[in-house]
Amino acid sequence: MALVPYDEASGLGLRRFHKPLATFSFANRTIRVRQDWRQLGVAAVVWDAAVVLSTYLEMGAVELRGCTAVELGAGTGLVGIVAALLGAHVTVTDRKVALEFLQSNIQANLPPHIQTNTVVKELTWGQNLESFSPGEFDLILGADIIYLEETFKDLLQTLGYLCGDHSVILLACRIRYERDNNFLAMMERQFTFYKLFIF
After folding, report:
1. Mean pLDDT in residue range 18-30
2. Could you report how far apart the first and last alpha carbons of the chain are, in Å?
3. Is residue 38 scored above 50 in pLDDT?
4. Do residues 120 and 103 touch, judged by C-beta distance below 8 A?
5. Is 141 exposed, middle or buried (0-12, 13-18, 19+ CB in 10 A)?
6. What is d(CA 80, CA 100) in angstroms, rounded to the nearest whole number?
7. Across residues 157-184, what is the average pLDDT?
8. C-alpha span between 152 and 145 (Å, rounded)
9. Parallel, antiparallel, or unpaired for β 21-26 and 29-34?
């Protein structure tokens, strides 16, 4: 578990979500991610957890070269973009309504030779899981996907389906409510190896 403190007062607060473009530097590249709060809400802005998880990936704590990774609830796709730039074969997923937006960020930020190792795919947790092979991913990534209690059961089912015996789950989230702690307890009952970044 990692604790990453920061001072919200020093940043721009919610105003940053309304900017049409968020710029980051990862994997020796400038990444410009489109945001569209008004059109797609929470699915179309870069949350702090995505930056924390992308930083962790860039630090090299997990070997990404050649691994298969899936990002759940990808939204803008920042984490998947960083994982792909660092050598993973990435499937970035979200609900159907967000896919076109997600695809545009992938295309804008990945060179063509890396785009061939990156797939954008629809995934609503707990539904149509058979469009994926059970246990097909080495690495499951999620940034700020633990916030709606009504999705917890489906998220756990999806994680269980996508994980193989040696898969690693990396989740980054801010614990906001007691229900978030309830999800963590559910994770601990179902999985033995995962890393969770709480801030």
Report:
1. 90
2. 10
3. yes
4. yes
5. buried
6. 15
7. 87
8. 9
9. antiparallel
